[in-house]
Structure formats: structure tokens, C-alpha cells
From TrEMBL:
<dbReference type="GO" id="GO:0006654">
    <property type="term" value="P:phosphatidic acid biosynthetic process"/>
</dbReference>
<protein>
    <recommendedName>
        <fullName>1-acyl-sn-glycerol-3-phosphate acyltransferase</fullName>
        <ecNumber>2.3.1.51</ecNumber>
    </recommendedName>
</protein>
<feature type="transmembrane region" description="Helical">
    <location>
        <begin position="31"/>
        <end position="48"/>
    </location>
</feature>
<feature type="domain" description="Phospholipid/glycerol acyltransferase">
    <location>
        <begin position="90"/>
        <end position="205"/>
    </location>
</feature>
<keyword id="KW-0443">Lipid metabolism</keyword>
<feature type="transmembrane region" description="Helical">
    <location>
        <begin position="121"/>
        <end position="139"/>
    </location>
</feature>
<dbReference type="GO" id="GO:0005783">
    <property type="term" value="C:endoplasmic reticulum"/>
</dbReference>
<keyword id="KW-0808">Transferase</keyword>
<comment type="function">
    <text>Converts 1-acyl-sn-glycerol-3-phosphate (lysophosphatidic acid or LPA) into 1,2-diacyl-sn-glycerol-3-phosphate (phosphatidic acid or PA) by incorporating an acyl moiety at the sn-2 position of the glycerol backbone.</text>
</comment>
<dbReference type="Pfam" id="PF01553">
    <property type="entry name" value="Acyltransferase"/>
</dbReference>
<dbReference type="InterPro" id="IPR004552">
    <property type="entry name" value="AGP_acyltrans"/>
</dbReference>
<keyword id="KW-1133">Transmembrane helix</keyword>
<dbReference type="GO" id="GO:0003841">
    <property type="term" value="F:1-acylglycerol-3-phosphate O-acyltransferase activity"/>
</dbReference>
<keyword id="KW-0812">Transmembrane</keyword>
<comment type="similarity">
    <text>Belongs to the 1-acyl-sn-glycerol-3-phosphate acyltransferase family.</text>
</comment>
<keyword id="KW-0012">Acyltransferase</keyword>
<keyword id="KW-0472">Membrane</keyword>
Length: 270
């Protein structure tokens, strides 16, 4: 019987050393499970601190999540910190590659900042509950009228409560080596609130993480915080040009920093 218990203990390091597919699934499962455990820890802390749903709970969530990168072998290099030293409300927009984006988000998340996320996330067990307690704004992506209404309410909340909102304008995860066209919601939000936009660009994950090829190595993620884009005086007529300007700036930065990371670490072999 003792020998039977020894077999998995011996197999585990062997598989971690020899099978990239095993490492991929192990890291993915560990990440999801550990985030759910952290959410379970955070729920009573948030309730004790704020009594319920409150954006200040994001401080607790941020402090609990920041260590997860070490377990996954990830490192962040951040440039442009000074651009987040902006007073008052603003909208942060960033590219969206995978659920790992949450780690980068928590790495630089400013105070009084929360996210806009798909409605389905609220049903993700303890993670969904902690998202709700953190003041995350949920939208129904399938109903455009509902999403517009939520964005209008969010703009009012930004001004009334002096908060910041983080939005992924691509609208879905994308690991194709480029940015998807931006949806207009984040830009309507910024214009309605007359709040500046601060673009944040994550370098490509392709040098350490390939979902289809089932590879997940240690790696470096570069985060480039770009200068703010003012929206004062803009109207809904300016939303398209604002979106295009933001897209072009972020795409240029994405290609630049992704190339530099690949040159530093080398491409991930398929």
C-alpha cells in the first residue's frame, strides 16, 4: 500500500520535467483552483471591511492575488507608471489575451478602480462572488441595449463616486498575435464621463503560453502604460475617431514590446 502512494509522488516530478502538456494542464488547473481559494479567503475579509459590495474591496483582492505570478513562473516588467498618477476618474483600456490578464491587472491596479466584465463571470462560484463584492460592473454582451444602459450608468457612477474603470475593448480573449478591432463601449463611457483614457498594453504571451499547443512555460510579460488621451469637449460624434486613435497607439506599442520580449526570451517552440 505504501508503494502505491509512492507512485504518484514519483510520477509528478517526472511528468513536470518531461511533458509540456502535463505542465500546461497542471498550471491551468492550479491557477483556477488557487484563485477560487483566494476568493474564498477574500469574501469574509471584504464583508468585514466594507459590509458588502464596495470598490474599496479591490484593495484586499489586489493584495491577495499579487503573489500568484510566482507560482506560475511569471514576471512583470512595467513601464509608464507615471501615467497612472492621474487624479480623478479615468478609463483604463487594455488588450485581452487570456485569464492570465488578471495577474497583470492586479499588478498595476490603481486605488478606487474596478473592471467591466461579462455577466457570465458572476456565476463563477467564489470568484464570481468576490467580483461582485469588488464592485465589478457586469454587462450582457448579447444585448446591446443593456450594455449601453450599463455604460451610461457606469459613467454617472464614475463621476458621482470618483472611481476608475478598466475595460477590455476587444470584447473577448485574443491570442492571434495582433489586436482585434475595438468595440465602442469603453469610448462612449469615457466621452459620457468626460474622463481621460489611459491605454495599457500587455506584450504577447506567445513566448511562454500557447493554448492550442498546450504549452505553458515560465516567462516575462511587459506592461506598457501609455500617456492618457483626453476626452474633454468630445461628443458621441468623436467616439469612432477616439477608438481608432487608441487602437493605433496600442497596436503599435503591442507589436514593439512583443518583439522585444521575443528577442529577449526567444520564441516558444511548437
Amino acid at each position: 500500500m505504501d508503494v502505491m502512494w509512492m507512485i504518484p509522488l514519483l510520477l509528478f516530478p517526472l511528468l513536470m520535467w518531461t511533458s509540456s502538456t502535463f505542465v500546461f494542464y497542471f498550471k491551468k488547473c492550479f491557477y483556477v483552483a488557487w484563485m477560487m481559494v483566494l476568493a474564498l479567503v477574500a469574501i469574509p475579509l471584504c464583508i468585514l471591511k466594507s459590509g458588502g459590495r464596495d470598490i474599496e474591496n479591490m484593495r484586499i483582492i489586489r493584495s491577495l492575488v499579487r503573489h500568484v505570478k510566482y507560482f506560475l513562473g511569471l514576471r512583470f516588467e512595467v513601464s509608464g507608471w507615471e501615467h497612472l498618477q492621474t487624479e480623478g476618474p479615468y478609463v483604463i483600456i487594455s488588450n485581452h489575451q487570456s485569464s492570465l490578464d488578471v495577474l497583470g491587472l492586479m499588478e498595476i491596479l490603481p486605488d478606487r478602480c474596478t473592471m467591466i466584465a461579462k455577466k457570465e463571470l458572476i456565476y463563477a462560484g467564489t470568484v464570481g462572488l468576490i467580483c461582485w463584492l469588488g464592485g465589478i460592473v457586469f454587462i450582457n454582451r448579447k444585448k446591446t441595449s443593456d450594455a449601453k444602459s450599463v455604460m451610461a450608468d457606469a459613467a454617472k457612477t464614475m463621476l458621482d463616486d470618483q472611481i476608475r474603470l478598466w475595460v477590455f475593448p476587444e470584447g473577448t480573449r485574443n491570442q492571434r498575435g495582433d489586436l482585434l478591432p475595438f468595440k465602442k463601449g469603453a469610448f462612449h463611457l469615457a466621452v459620457q464621463a468626460q474622463a481621460p483614457i489611459i491605454p495599457v498594453v500587455f506584450s504577447s504571451y506567445s513566448n511562454f503560453y500557447l493554448r492550442k499547443e498546450k504549452q505553458f512555460k515560465a516567462g516575462t510579460i511587459r506592461l506598457n502604460i501609455l500617456p492618457k488621451i483626453e476626452t474633454k469637449g468630445m461628443t458621441s460624434d468623436d467616439v469612432s475617431s477616439l477608438s481608432d486613435k487608441s487602437f493605433n497607439l496600442m497596436r503599435s506599442a503591442f507589436l514593439d514590446i512583443s518583439d522585444s520580449v521575443t528577442q529577449s526570451n526567444g520564441p516558444l517552440r511548437h
